[in-house]
Amino acid sequence: MKIEVIGCGSAFSKISNTSSLLVTDNTGNQLLIDCGPTVPRALYNRSTSVNEIGAIYFTHIHPDHCTGLTALFNYWKSHHRTEPVTIFCQEENKSPLQFLALFANWPAKELCFEVHWQMITDHFVWNHWQLETAETQHELTNRALRISADGQQLFYSGDGRPTQASIDLMQHTDLAFQECASFDALDETSSHGDFYACKALLEKSNIKRLGLYHCWDEAIAEIKQSAATIEYLFVSHDGLTIDLSE
Ligand SMILES: [Zn+2]
Ligand SMILES: [Zn+2]
């Protein structure tokens, strides 16, 4: 399983793309996780075929995680995509996402490729992948994702503070990405992760590597400095590629 960080930034980052991962399995199946406003351009820059991404998973629909869908679909339409795409989302997020998709070819109602909408459940399957989800503590309902494929395990938190359910979901993964907006400790009722909570999370779990992302720009320097002293902990960056098969 190959993981490419398309973006690791918070909603209004001036440094990084909005947060998104591209996950590719050993047979070439590609899933994009989240698609915020700066993600389409990052994908155009990769100069790969418009047919390669087979599915998009939305953790939640804050604008920094979904509003790139219109531009991405418009790009795929303009470059004559032919392959169907599957959208995985929460039931209550389907209709706003469908509007973003429809707007990609406004005022026409159809695109030149099929869009299959599939609702997220606790556990579902895509190709030979096992996908499991759990809610984090966030302003909007956010579902963290665990992918098991080719004998490898990846966890991606989406936004929000860890919950017992999301902590359980990240156990025994080869690589986990956890949202860490703040360096300073935030209140337990907060909607975002912080460095001290992430550090504690790593200490009491059996994750092989923990990547912090979605950091507020002003917190990045302190988070990087402190993370550098802790084994198995790193701060994500745009363009980072990790191949779990290596
Ligand atoms: Zn966000
Ligand atoms: Zn959010």
UniProtKB/TrEMBL annotation:
SUPFAM superfamilies: Metallo-hydrolase/oxidoreductase. Pfam families: Anti-Pycsar_Apyc1. InterPro entries: RibonucZ/Hydroxyglut_hydro (IPR036866). Coiled coil: none annotated. One of its GO terms (molecular function) is 3'-tRNA processing endoribonuclease activity. This is Ribonuclease Z. It comes from Photobacterium ganghwense.
